Each structure stands twice: as C-alpha cells, then as structure tokens.
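Progress narrative, work stream C.
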Amino acid sequence: MFIYLNKTCYNGLYRVNKSGLFNVPMGKYTNPVILDEDNLRACSKFLRNVTIKQNSFVHCNPQKDQFYYLDPPYHETFSNYDGNGFKGKEHEKLAEFCNKINAKKGFFMLSNSDTPFIRELYKGYNTEIISAARFISCKANGRNKQNELIIRNY
C-alpha cells in the first residue's frame, strides 16, 4: 500500500492530517511504475543485514560510529506533516540531538533551510550550501530553486 501511495500521490509526498491519516492528493501520472520488481529485489538484498528504525529522534540514544541522516521539516516552510508541527523549539531539540551524536562520536548529516536561525544552531559544523528545486508547492511559480544547507559533523 505504501509503495502504491508513494508512486501515485502528488510528487511522492507523504503527509498525514491531524488524525494521523494519509492526506496527499493523487498525482498526475500517465503510467506510474508501481511494482519495479528488479529494484525491490536489489534493495531487499542490500538491506538484508541492515536494521532500520523509525522513531522520533527524541527517543534515540546515539551510538558511536552510527550514521544518522536527518531530514526534518525545513525551518520557515510547511511543517505540519504529522499534525504536531515542527517549529523553532523542535529545531533546537534536533540541534541538541546532533550535539549528542557528535559527543558520542557518531556521524550525522542534516538537511535544512538556509536561514540565520539554522546557521546559528549548527555553528561549528561543516555546512554546505546547495541549490535545490522545489516541486511540492501548489503554485507553479513557487517551484523554483532555493538555497538549502547540508550540515555534517564529519
């Protein structure tokens, strides 16, 4: 069901409403590839001995040599993907989590908006500016390139 929704909804976006129910409209696809059997089997083989955990970062205990990729709702953009929102305080908690990863000698890579607030939270870490196209905006003129930050502790 998840693969079907991801391949047929608007731009592959996953979002839920305040009740926790998936609420992304259908995309406009002529012939979406829903079952790419070769790709699914290759991914299955690659991930055979990998543990993937889904949890809020506040419940994670960073470990040495573990890698954490963090892609939060971006600062000063739409942030209500789960009904709870993700505002300044949540970004501060996430920065604290990254500091814990760093202290435990783990590795993290985080993507976020290029805003003064985010730059201040991650001052001292390796920061790279990238230009990324926006495809999610409901307004065509809102789908332009914007600067984002890739922040790493390695």
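Work stream C, second folded protein:
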Amino acid sequence: MTPLRRIVVTGGTGFVGRAVCEHLVERSGGAGGRIVVPTRRRRAGLAIQSLPTVEIVAADVHDPRALERVLAGCDAVVHLVAILHGSAADFQRVHVDLPRTLAAACRQAGVRRLVHVSALGVAADAPSHYLRSKAAGERVLLDSGLDVTVLRPSVIFGAHDRFLNLFARLQALAPVVPLGGAQARFQPVWVEDVAEAVVRCLDRDDTIGRTLECAGPDVMTLAELVRLAGRLSGHQRPVLPLSAPLAHLQAAMMEWLPGEPLMSRDNVDSMRVPNVASGALPGLASLGITAAAVETVAAGYLGGASGPGRFERWRARRG
C-alpha cells in the first residue's frame, strides 16, 4: 500500500483520540509524516500538543470549507467525532450530517482512505437516537465511494475514561447506587486496543469496505461493571437495580441538572440493545490484536496507588 504521510484525526482531542494520536506517533517512530488534529478550541489539544509530529489546527469540522482546508494534502482520515447526549437534531447533526460533510470534503480534497469509529448495536431500527444516527452515519460513509473501514467498539475503558472512573467516584460519595439498566450487557474494550486497531486498519488495504467489531474478552452486566469499579477503587457500595420506568425517570431528572448528564433517557434506550460482539463480523483477533481484560487494566488506574489514574483527582481540581 502507499505510505500514509499525513493523517487527519477528527475528534483527536478526546479520550479515544488521544490514544489514537499516540499510536500513530509510535507507528511513525516519532519522525516523518504529520498527524493533523482539527479543533475549535486549541486548549482542548493540550494533552497531545507535545507529541512529536502532531499538529493542532484551529478549525470547525462542521464547516465544509474549513474541513477542505484541513484535508488539503492529506492521505487519510480517522473520524472519531461523536456525542452520547443530546436531542434528535443534535445526533443528526453530529452522527449523520458531519459524516456527509466529511465525505464531500474528502472527495474535494482527493482523500480516499477513511477509518470511522462507530459503535456496537447500531441499526436503523434501534431503540435510541444514538444508535439509529450512528447507523445512518455508517451508511453515509460506506456509500460515499471512499475507501472506508468501520470499527464498532463496545463501551471503551481506560485511564481517562468517563465510565469506570465515574462509577468509582460515585461510590466514593454515595452509600448506595440506584442503577438503571443494571442488567444491560457490555463487552468492554480497552482504549489502547481500539487505537491499535485504527492504526492497523490504516496500514491494511484488506480492511477497506469492511466492518469490524472491537470487543474485550469479558461480557459483563452494567451492575457487574459498577461493582468492579467500586471494588477496585476501594469503595464498593450496594447496587439498587431500577425498573425501566424508574430508570427513565432517573435519567429525565439527570437531564435537568447543570452540565452534561450522567445518564440520559436515550442512554437508557440504548442499553436495551446488548452492547456485545455479534460474532458475525471480524473482530480484533483478525487484526492480530489480543484484547485486554477489563479487570486487569482497570486495576492499574482505579486503585489510585499506581498508574496514570493516581493523578486524576489533582488534574480534575486544576481543570
């Protein structure tokens, strides 16, 4: 395949994006080529701006002209932009309209290669706006005429996640955890495994036109994951499963709180679909990746005594 010398990573300042940028730097050996990360707020790129070969560019990816300028002279795109909360219009704008804008900009700039990170459980008839819009976004890109690979991960965990870390913090404060969707099933996948999958797909032409599932070795319920986060952080609390109506009521109340909600009604609807690999599509093993177990990795950052997680409370306080 033709060497990829300049790669654009949309959403490169986020949790998954940071890991992808680090793996791309390792791929190039820290020399040669460029990794271009567009962002509306340069401050959002502080965590990756010191990486060699990474270039932070001020740009609004929803602006077609700005996106064409960013893509000029590039060889490939990794598309990571997504949201978990919002209205139907928000999901449409980010998960469907943006991929359409991106595909058009790629064609205009002569960029053919694109790796898109989607999600397990997406379907046109799925019960949530999130899953339906992600399915529609996949279809836009797969029908675009570009050389597209789609990755569908389960819930992604890692040292800077807003999943296990969140449940660990909640249990440090609350005597009990009322939990909607307690029996929802997940197959958590390590962010480093997802990032490595992105890089290997970029380097393998045989993944073009294919959809791959990214899942870890363990299938666990949400309640089991919450208990795991509590145990590893030393604050395990009783989990109180909520019925579907109470889960929706709890989520509706959270949506009214300031800031991004911990859980929305759309999230509750998404959890009606098992977030596990179907087995009908190739997975990480097809890329030569042995997925890490959630407990093995999470023990290193939830305990707080070692690993990068030990600094998270201080980072949060300092903003």
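The chain has a mean pLDDT of 91. No further action is required on this item.
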